[in-house]
Amino acid sequence: MLQITNTVSIADDEIELTAIRAQGNGGQNVNKSSTAIHLRFDIRTSSLPPLYQERLLAMSHHLITSDGIVVIKAQEYRSQELNREAALARLAELIKSAGVVEKVRRPTKPSRNAKRKRVESKTRRGMTKSLRGKISAD
Fold first, then answer.
1. Regarding predicted confidence, which is higher, 24 or 107?
2. How far is it, in rounded angstroms, from Cα 77 to Cα 19?
3. Which site among 14, 21, 49, 133 is 20 to 30 Å from 119 CA-CA?
4. Which residues contact 24 (CB under 8 A, 6 or more apart)?
5. Residue 105 bridge partners (DSSP)
6. pTM of the prediction?
């Protein structure tokens, strides 16, 4: 059972974990042991609440395919168990991010006093710069 929040969790049988051979460094160990984990999670057939499903399917994330399947490959550790935990943590983080509601931005205008101060500072700066010019011999 993968616990996402206090109310949302995913059963283990909904997550497909496969051990595969890792790429990259590791010497001879890489050639003979399957330490990387390939995680697949189908959003549409999962027991997630409809709100999470809709938001996950609407996300344009590189881990989510067009068919609505989350594909995560974890191979950063040399241990299969650590890679399994890392893949599950990344899945949980992805689902949590889908549940976050962003605040609606309300456009604001600068106050009259803020506008006045801005113009005053610009004229003051302009005066300072104009005083730096050459003095004419008039």
1. 107
2. 13
3. 133
4. 30, 75
5. none
6. 0.67
| 8 Å CB contact between 18 and 37 | yes
The Cα–Cα gap between 39 and 20 comes to: 10
| 26: pLDDT strictly greater than 70 | no
One-letter identity of residue 50: P
Torsions phi, psi for 113 (to 5 deg): -65, -40
Q: Is the pLDDT of residue 117 over 90?
A: yes
Helix (H, G, I), strand (E, B) or coil at 76: coil
| Residue matched to tokens 């497909």 | 16
* 105 SS3 class: coil
Q: What are phi and psi of 111, to 5 degrees?
A: -70, 165
Query: In this structure, what token pair is assigned to residue 45?
Result: 């057939």
Structure-token pair, residue 35: 């330490």
